[in-house]
Design goal:
CATH architecture: Roll
Strand order of the largest sheet: 1-3-4-5-2
CATH superfamily: Hotdog Thioesterase
Number of domains: 1
Number of helices: 3
Order of helices and strands: EHEEEEHH
CATH class: Alpha Beta
Helix content: 10-25%
Strand content: 35-45%
Length: 151
């Protein structure tokens, strides 16, 4: 039987991450021309980093967390030069599965909120799985060449 690998974790722990919005954080930087505000994918990353910060030093050595789901609403825009702060609170521990409530704010308002799921996994097992993909003969084929279904 596997012991509870999240022994140092407890519901309610919080983590934070912040940034000052720069050109590379903008939606326009990734091709959404004319939309010079913090991009949704950068907001999602900021909130996931806050979740990881909540558990730094709280999971066993040799283990890491991987983001497996993020479900957020992007509610408001933030322009270049504005400081944005993300907060994450661990709301549930289900074996290796960690659930966080996440939110991001600028000095004026809430920018986004939602849920982030992360899984605790073995770093070595994860690296081995990735290594198998890098050694596969099909690794450089285009998606249409692979015949992958959309669903």
């Amino acid at each position: 039987m596997e012991r509870n690998i999240a022994v140092e974790l407890e519901v309610g722990v919080r983590g934070y991450e912040e940034l000052v919005v720069s050109e590379k954080d903008l939606a326009s930087f990734t091709g959404n021309v004319g939309v010079d505000v913090l991009s949704t994918h950068r907001v999602a990353l900021l909130m996931e980093l806050a979740a990881r910060n909540a558990i730094v030093g709280r999971i066993p050595e040799g283990k890491i967390t991987l983001g497996t789901r993020i479900d957020i609403r992007h509610l408001a825009a933030a322009p270049v030069g504005v400081k944005v702060c993300a907060e994450a609170e661990l709301t549930a521990i289900q074996g290796r599965r960690l659930l966080f409530h996440v939110a991001a704010f600028d000095p004026v308002e809430k920018l986004a909120e939602g849920e982030n799921e992360q899984m605790i996994v073995s770093l070595e097992a994860f690296k081995n799985r990735v290594r198998q993909k890098t050694e596969a003969p099909w690794r450089t084929q285009g998606c249409s060449d692979l015949g992958l279904p959309m669903r």
